[in-house]
Amino acid sequence: MPSTLTADRVRADIADVLDLDPAELADADDLLDEGLDSVRVMALVERWRAAGVDVDIVDLAAEPTITAWTKLLTA
């Protein structure tokens, strides 16, 4: 089943849990440096699973950037 997520949705969801404007996040920013922690990552995982995406925290932790996550989540 194709992903229901878009690149804009991924960026918006990440910005939402970080309480930032999506424009404040660059594609290659290390999201951990931006304040993302395990609790917020789990919140994102649950949000994206609810949207029908099979995602695992381990996959996200491997490369915590918007670019990597968008590629993983919208494939």
TrEMBL record:
Superkingdom, taxonomy of origin: Bacteria
Gene3D superfamilies named in the record: ACP-like
Pfam families: PP-binding
Organism: Rhodococcus rhodnii LMG 5362
InterPro entries documented for this protein: ACP-like_sf, PP-bd_ACP
Stretches assigned to the Carrier domain: 1-75
Name listed for the protein in its UniProt record: Carrier domain-containing protein
